[in-house]
Structure formats: C-alpha cells, structure tokens
Amino acid sequence: MTALMRRCVLMAAVLGLVARAAGRAEAGITIYHDRAEFLAAVAPGSFTEDFQGLSTDRLSSPQSFRGPDFSFEASAPNGLFGNEYSGDRVLAVFDGEDMLTISSLAGPGPVTALGGYFFVDNTSFGPINPFGAMSVAATDGSLTSTQALSAPTTTTTFVGFVSDGPALTSLSFARTSGLGFIATNDFIVGTASTANPVSAPEPSSLAAACTGLLTCLGYVLRRRRPAAA
Q1: Cys bridge to 133: 21, 22, 174, 177, which one at CB 3.0-4.6 A?
Q2: Does 86 score more than 80 pLDDT?
Q3: Omega before 201 within 30 of 0, i.e. cis
Q4: Residue 206: predicted pLDDT
C-alpha cells in the first residue's frame, strides 16, 4: 500500500470518529412540562403507577412497583408512605428532610422516558397548596438534567424527561426550601417513541471531511490509471 493510499485510509477512519463524536455531543435529555406532549414522545406500552394500593402507614424502603412491561423501585432513607387526597393516593417520603429516588428501572428495552406529577406534601390529608420548593433530576449515568419547581402542587407540576441517548438510570427529587414532604403521583416509565439514532455531525464538518476524502481517492485513481498507448 502506497503512502498516499495509507493517508486515504487514515482519513476515512478519522471521518468515522468525527461522526461518532459529533453524535455523542448532540445527545441529551429533553424536559417536558405538558403531560400530553410528554406522552406523545413516549412509545405505546408505557407503565403509569397511580399508587392507589399504597398504605397510609409507614412503608419500608425500597418499595417495588411493576406493570405489564416496566418496573422500578422507590426509596428514601427513612421510609415511605401513601398520602391520600380526596380518595387519591400519592407516594411520599416519611421524613420531610429525605430525598426520594426512583431507580432499578427495567423494561423490554432501554428506559428512556420518565415523568410524573411532583410536589411537596403537607401530610394534612386534604387539598394541597404550594408548601415548599423542590428540584427533580434525571440521569443517564453520565448526564444529569435538573428541573427546579418553585410552587409545586399535585395537579399542576408535571415534569417528564426523555433521553435521546443512553437509558435513564435514576430520577431523584428533594425539597429545596420551605416545609413539607416531597411526593409524586401518576408516575410514568417508558421508552422514547422513536429509536433515537446517533445524530449526524455538523453538515459543514462532514462536507469538508468528505471533500478531502474524495480528493485523496481521486489522486489514487489517477496514479493507478494505465498510461495511454
């Protein structure tokens, strides 16, 4: 193999690395605040846990939840319990200072979509008003996306996370100010509605690399063309 051909092979390898690196750089987690928009981005067959079967007594941690295809665990250092509002149960931490973590995510494919209503529970067993601020964070193992909620309530503070890269590994939420017990309801676990391919590199970068590769190959072909008789 001539030196010029070796340079062409090297350029082709570099072009592949550029494409893969650009795709990784563009991968991320999209945050949704509208439940309908979030569900439109989730494939059919997702699992919604409504927590209706939870006891209002103190529960051990972790608690496991399973649907037809998806499952997850909820945990807090000092345990969990099911609070109730007008007959509707929600999952809350037993100690107001605790963080609630969703993990051990499993499904028929990578779990790339998580969402639900997140709020601060006043444990009064009645209609809830904003009782404190909180933050919700989803991670795919390398990237973490965090959403702050300044006045969360049971029915107005939906947050959904959809990863266009690796599977989501956990979601955690904690109170950041005020009083109360962090809680969630109608928690959704699923997969993004489309297979999110690795994004292509920037058109300008890709075009420049392809031009260089084609030029290099042109030189090789000209050098290999037999001389005219």
Answers
A1: 177
A2: no
A3: no
A4: 40
